[in-house]
Specification:
Blueprint: H1 2-14, H2 20-71, E1 82-83, H3 84-87, E2 110-114, E3 118-123, E4 133-134, E5 146-150
Parallel strand pairs: 4-5
Antiparallel strand pairs: 1-2, 2-3, 3-5
Pfam families: N_methyl
InterPro entries: Bac_GSPG_pilin, N_methyl_site, Pilin-like
Protein name: Type II secretion system protein GspG C-terminal domain-containing protein
Length: about 150
């Protein structure tokens, strides 16, 4: 009897690991939670980049309005869409310190003058719920879904 008790105690002392099923269950739960968290994180990043785009265009609009008040005309692009780094370089450094860049390196903000008395700035929003958000009086380019304009 004493020997049987020693064998049972020895088995209890030597069992120190987890079973394969226990490990698989824990790994499955961790994988599920991380995939849900990653999806939420990705969506939050998109919304943050969109907020920056909207803020950048608002800042450019303010700079253009100051430019207009001093020159009685907006920057002219002859009615064609142009990247802001080439068309609005006259705003630097007097009206804005630097021209903003889109958070995604493969996208650019675009600018178009409308008869020297109006303009439109456009950007591509990633998490746009509506197909088109614009205050521009001209049509946005294909693929662009957010615009800020005057008038």
């Amino acid at each position: 009897m004493n020997r049987k008790l020693l064998t049972t105690d020895y088995r209890l002392l030597t069992k120190r690991g987890f079973t394969l099923i226990e490990l698989l269950v824990v790994i499955s739960i961790i994988g599920l939670l991380s995939s849900v968290g990653l999806a939420s994180f990705t969506r939050a990043q998109e919304r943050a980049r969109d907020a920056k785009r909207q803020s950048d265009l608002t800042s450019l609009r303010n700079s253009l309005e100051i430019y207009y008040s001093e020159n009685n005309a907006y920057v002219d692009t002859l009615g064609s869409w142009q990247n802001i780094d080439t068309s609005l370089d006259v705003l630097v450094p007097t009206y804005t310190k630097v021209l903003p860049a889109d958070p995604m390196k493969d996208q650019t903000y675009r600018y178009r003058s409308v008869t020297n008395q109006g303009y439109c700035l456009e950007a591509i929003l990633e998490a746009a719920t509506e197909p088109l958000q614009t205050t521009c009086t001209v049509s946005l380019e294909s693929g662009y879904n957010f615009g800020v304009g005057n008038p």
